[in-house]
């Protein structure tokens, strides 16, 4: 309708009215564009806020699972050290072979130490976070985790020693000496005897008589000896990332 009035004013050469109505049209278009941009910016900010909250949860979960894995890895390394000490002593386990066999099994445990980064990767794909401080903090945390990627390779010791442990002993171990709770692995050092003393003694002797066992176990335990401390540093970096995210979320309230 305003365009009809504008056309009429032009035909009448009413230039003042033409000017006023042209300004009204331009102002309307400008305000419409501004409103659209404001709505888009508001929606984008809300989306980023939602993703920041999800990223915070993702990192919190990573910290919790990493703490659990630190304890499990310490148990693996300690079992490896005890097993190596037994092999170096070169003595018979006598009637106490079951705990030795359990230690050999404990020392073969492995679990991935990768942390979930799916939310952060999705945010980067969408151009978020817009805060360089958050990006640097989260990337620093993930870089700490990436340096430990070598420990995600299954150890040769794991396969070799499990070939030498009888199936019934392994079945008993999984049911009585190993527990998985909410992603956390726990290894029971005092689990009850699962096979006869004779069967345990034979298995331990077979392991001790295998030439490469000590070398493979030394490699595996040595590789993981520094991992708990590295994971604790990783969690410190994760905690710093959480602080930066929390500060940004506080500014958005």
Overview of the molecule:
- This protein is mainly alpha-helical and 253 residues long.
- It is 73% helix and 3% strand.
- It contains ten helices and two strands.
- The protein has helices spanning 2-11, 15-89, 97-106, 118-125, 132-146, 156-162, 167-176, 197-208, 213-224, 227-252; strands spanning 178-181, 184-187.
- A two-stranded antiparallel ribbon has the order 1-2.
- A hairpin with a 2-residue loop joins strand 1 and strand 2 (184-187).
- It is rod-shaped and about 110 Å long.
- The relative contact order is 0.15.
**Structural classification:** mainly alpha
Portion in strands: under 5%
Number of helices: 10
Distance between the termini: 43 Å
What is the string of helix and strand elements?
HHHHHHHEEHHH
Give the helix level as a range of percent.
over 70%
Low-confidence stretches: none
- Kindly report the spatial arrangement of strands forming the biggest sheet: 1-2
- Main pleated sheet: 2 strands, antiparallel
